[in-house]
Amino acid sequence: MLPHGNKAGAIAFALVFLGYQYLIHKVTLSGQFTPIAAAIVLIPFVVAAGWAIALELGLILALLITTTVMILGLAWVNMFGLPSVIIFGLPHLVTNLFLMWLFARTLKDGREPLITSIARRVHGSLKPEIEIYTRRVTYAWSLFFLLQITVSLGLYIFATLEAWSMYINILNVPLIILMFVCEYSYRILRYRDHQSSILSGLQFFLRDKPAAKPTKAR
């Protein structure tokens, strides 16, 4: 359980985040990519991306990469002007591509699947059937993020701007939460002796990088 102060902070963060997503949704529906709109959409995304890169590669490389990307973006705008409304989908696209890569790369031979690694940190040694299950869950998350990208592109091409924006801005996080809840519900029914909260798994994922260990489970 989270302390009372942490709960209040988490609730406040969630409310701010949801408000921000709704703001992006309204900006997207306006169809006008102004410099102010660009700042609203891209600056928080650049900060989050820089933080993620810093965790993986270090602060100096993160600053170099994000600074280079920002300079290239400004140069593009200076030469060709502001891009079309599709740029509003950039955070959703890049985030899901990154998460798909994060999960899928651990499914290669000689590496331990990401969910298996997290489960091992929470529970210690794992039974063979749990190793197989966690590998399959890693596959499922990889497929989930691929479907997120596919549906977004499909809606952008074939549906209305409102439907596309609603999906990438409003429904994105609830769909991730639904995926968590469905997997967790199935796990506590199928593997009653292998129960852990979603929060504990996230804490271990954020605290420790998964180790690359070979596994024979398929």
State the gist of this model.
The chain has a domain at 88-207. It contains 9 helices and no strands.
Question: What does this protein look like?
Answer:
The chain starts with a helix and ends in an 11-residue tail after the last helix. It is globular and about 55 Å long. It has a domain at 88-207. It contains nine helices and no strands. With 218 residues, the protein is an all-alpha fold.
Query: How large is the count of helical segments?
Result: 9
Q: Give the percentage of residues in beta strands.
A: under 5%
What portion of residues is helical?
over 70%
Largest sheet: none
Structural class: mainly alpha
The overall average pLDDT, rounded, is 77
Task: Note the overall shape.
Answer: globular
DSSP E strands, number: 0
What is the H/E string? HHHHHHHHH
Distance between the termini: 34 Å
> What does the radius of gyration come to?
19 Å
Q: Which regions contain 5 or more consecutive residues with pLDDT less than 50?
A: 210-218
List strands and helices in order, with pairings:
Elements: H1 4-30, H2 35-57, H3 59-80, H4 90-104, H5 114-123, H6 128-158, H7 161-170, H8 172-190, H9 198-207
Helix pairs in contact: 1-7, 2-3, 4-6, 5-6, 5-9, 6-7
Key attributes of the depicted protein:
9 helices, single chain, disordered C terminus, 218 residues, mainly alpha, globular, 0% strand
